[in-house]
Amino acid sequence: MAVTPGTTPGTTPGTATGTDPRLPAREPGLAGYLADFRRRMRGGELGSVPVVVGLAIIWVTFGLLDSSFLSPRNLSNLSVDIVGMGMITIGVVFVLLVGDIDLSVGSVSGLVAAVFAVMNVNHGVPEPLAVLVAVLAGTATGAIHGFFVARVGVPAFIVTLAGLLGWNGLMLYLLGSSGTIILDDTGMVADLTDDYYHGVTGYGIAAVGVLVLLLVSHRTSRRRAAAGVPARPLAEIAVRTAVLAAAAFTAAAVLAEFQGPPLALLIFLAVVVGLDFLLRRTSYGRNVFALGGGVEAARRAGIDVVRVRISVFMVSGTMAAIGGLFLASRLTSVSQESGSGDLLVNVIAAAVIGGTSLFGGRGTTWSALLGVLVIQSIASGMALLGIQVAVQFMITGGVLLAAVVIDSLSRRLQKAHGRA
Description:
This protein has a single domain (48-195, 262-408), classed as Orthogonal Bundle (ABC transporter involved in vitamin B12 uptake, BtuC). The protein has helices at 29-42, 49-65, 72-97, 105-122, 127-152, 156-175, 188-191, 201-226, 234-256, 263-281, 283-293, 295-300, 305-331, 343-353, 365-385, 389-416; strands spanning 180-182, 333-335. It contains 16 helices and 2 strands. It is globular, with a radius of gyration of 23 Å. By secondary structure, it is mostly helical.
């Protein structure tokens, strides 16, 4: 068999050695990137585009209606308000990725806050130990849910609905007749949403984040190129890094005009990045996505389906616990209303609005960040305009319905193009 100079057997001229010829070729440069972007949009691979566009529309609209919406003070408050709900939403994302649902996260967050308050305030247990026990209690609730779902085979909807009722009842029992426990406003938990970093700290954190992204992206691109699979060109990495740098330094500048970046936001971003690495860069994360793509296929691929399903409920319980502590920190109290109200609806809505599929197999921790930003931005804008909560619920419901419709249409397009 004749071989064209510059190629190896099994390859075609103009392709990299070892590259699968079935993979779509991409032209180099900006034109190639735009062409690939259009191809993915037509194929239903929308990613975060809809929610980013929606968030931009929300911010521009409220900014025009009330100039204080985009003020440093309001944006700083918004960056703290998203953390408690955002932490809980991350756990919901993990459960949705495998095609299940967790309706107990609101009650678990309230229960954990009550456990911490009773131990620390009523019984004098040191805060670090009380926090540890409370978070482990959240993990334990997730393990119980996962056991009944994965081992016993009870539908997740029923198990977590029972958890919603049962854990809420236990919280009310722990709080007792008083119903409200006031936290120490100078304690470690209260400081979670009350500490800010002044000076140039925000710019330094932004610079480190941009540098890490640049190094990781470049290293990943080199490894993919060495393996003979499509990799991002250096120009694209530079553009992506420049966009992130502009966003990061703008955020640092805006927050610096008030009190600087809040500790709660920095912790939240660290959790988002860390768990995103877990999902996208580890075998465990690949198992989670595989399970969301199909239980039987994952089982035949050798994945321990039971273990993975239990683990995502444990992650959900743990994140609900952490979120509950942040919510208690924001109010410096725990009451019978903790974890109730519209919290459950909002965290599930945030996960879906952020781009996590209700059908499983698609979503990231960044979905939680984007979705909760949408939810809290609507709430913040409505409060500034003095619009009643009923209208906020209607608008949030409409946004949620639009997100689910986009998700369904996206899956239909991907199936039509053979990508789902």
